[in-house]
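Sequence, please.
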């Protein structure tokens, strides 16, 4: 299987997540960035940190990309998510402003 071609900003983000680098994870977001986790929205780095401490970085999550689509400033990565909180094929849609994530939307993959 060919490795998906993931834009550098998102490839770096996935590396940061998979290495459980909390500061790198938070720094990837714009100051008023949003995580939309199945309809629950966390706005700003403090709220994102609170969510992530339990469900993302704090859950030692690993994203294994399988598919990538790019539409304008939105990059969608579909792949396996494995963590101590939740597991399964998931869709991670990233809205970008330059090299910062303004929104990460998580849904079933």
């Amino acid at each position: 299987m060919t490795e998906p071609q993931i834009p550098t900003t998102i490839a770096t983000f996935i590396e940061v997540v998979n290495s459980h680098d909390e500061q790198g994870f938070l720094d990837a977001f714009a100051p008023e960035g949003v995580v939309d986790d199945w309809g629950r929205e966390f706005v700003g780095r403090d709220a994102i940190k609170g969510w992530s401490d339990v469900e993302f970085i704090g859950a030692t999550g690993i994203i294994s990309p399988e598919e990538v689509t790019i539409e304008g400033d939105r990059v969608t990565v579909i792949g396996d998510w494995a963590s101590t909180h939740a597991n399964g094929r998931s869709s991670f849609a990233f809205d970008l402003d330059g090299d910062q994530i303004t929104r990460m939307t998580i849904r079933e993959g």
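The two ends are 18 Å apart (CA to CA).
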